[in-house]
Amino acid sequence: MKAKKEDTDFNSIQAELKASGYEEKDVTIRSGKAMILGVVYALPFIIIFGFLYRVRLIERAHLSEIGGPSFYILFLIIIVISVVIHELLHGIGWAISSGMGWRAVRFNINAMMPSCACKVVLKKKQYLTGALTPFAVLGLGSILFVFICPGTVSLLTMMVNFIAAGADLLIASHVLREGACLIADHPTEAGYIAFYK
């Protein structure tokens, strides 16, 4: 029922813009492809900061001796916390950049994972603000965490946060190539619809 309401709201936005003379360009990416390409976009950051960690920080790193199932539980906890904060930051970015507060965003649970979508049409800069807020905040925060407290937990946290932001970087790279347009975040897929007049 919720997915149908999201589709109805999105279809309503599409219909209004088409009626106003806009043409649409679909820039959505299948979730599997977005995940793979997202890792590719995140890799340069992981390689650069992983190398700096290895060269500059390894001697004072707090390496965990956790192994086996405990390591995977720790890793899962880092993923869950990072993903929840990541999606919340998307919402904060779009809530602020749209000027509409929380009315502009919708939080969902898809396949037991939280997600956030913007419910209103935005200009490119507004859309990019929300799309890249997690990368800016968690990326910078993770780098600081690694340099202040190098170790297993901070390194895993940095890797998770960059990989989680990889798909956002992929989408942002598409947005930056768009001309003057309005952007509607897709409610269920990775990506957006660009509207041109």
From TrEMBL:
Q: Which InterPro entries match?
A: DUF3267 (IPR021683)
Bilayer-spanning residue ranges: 34-53, 73-96, 127-148, 154-176
- Presence of keyword Chaperone: no
Keywords (alphabetical) are: Membrane, Transmembrane, Transmembrane helix
Q: Write down the Pfam families for this protein, in alphabetical order.
A: DUF3267
Q: What is this protein called?
A: DUF3267 domain-containing protein
Provide the species name.
Answer: Candidatus Limivivens intestinipullorum
